[in-house]
Structure formats: structure tokens, C-alpha cells
Prior knowledge:
mainly alpha; 4 helices; 64% helix; elongated
Amino acid sequence: MIRPERRERLIKTARALGLRPFDAALIIAMVQDEARRGAVPQGYPPLTARLAENLQAVPAPSRTPTQPGILQRLAGVLLIAACMVAAGIIWLNSG
């Protein structure tokens, strides 16, 4: 059983990797079902033949333009910082 906080973190991580929340929840349910049946082998990842076959039904992750990469985030942060510095200079010069 996965606590709700841990489940939300897993889904958030899956979204960052390009999975839809529905697909992430489906994967979690598949793994939990295998664990409930007692079929989870030792090791990481705990992958049984049946689980591997079932996971093939889940679409592969895809990056969409709405999910910014690290360079886009960095550019956004730098732009905001530059605007704040410019506003500070203007404020200091006006007084």
C-alpha cells in the first residue's frame, strides 16, 4: 500500500518524465496488484514477466512543448532576474 503523499510524488515524477497522470496511476496499480498477489521478485525494479507484458500496454512517455526543459526554465529565471535588476536601477536613479 502506498501512502497518498508518496503516490502524489510518484505521479509528479512520472509527469516530469513525460507520462500522463492516468498512465502513471495505471503503472502504480499494476505494480501494487503484483505485490498483492505476492509475485514481486527481489531486486530492482521488481519486474515479473506478467508485469512486463502488462506494461507494454502503457504508451511510452512523450515530451510536449508545454513541459519546459531545464534550459527553458533557466532562460525564464535569467529573464526575470534581469528585469528585477533593471527595475532596481530605474528606482534608484529616479529618487
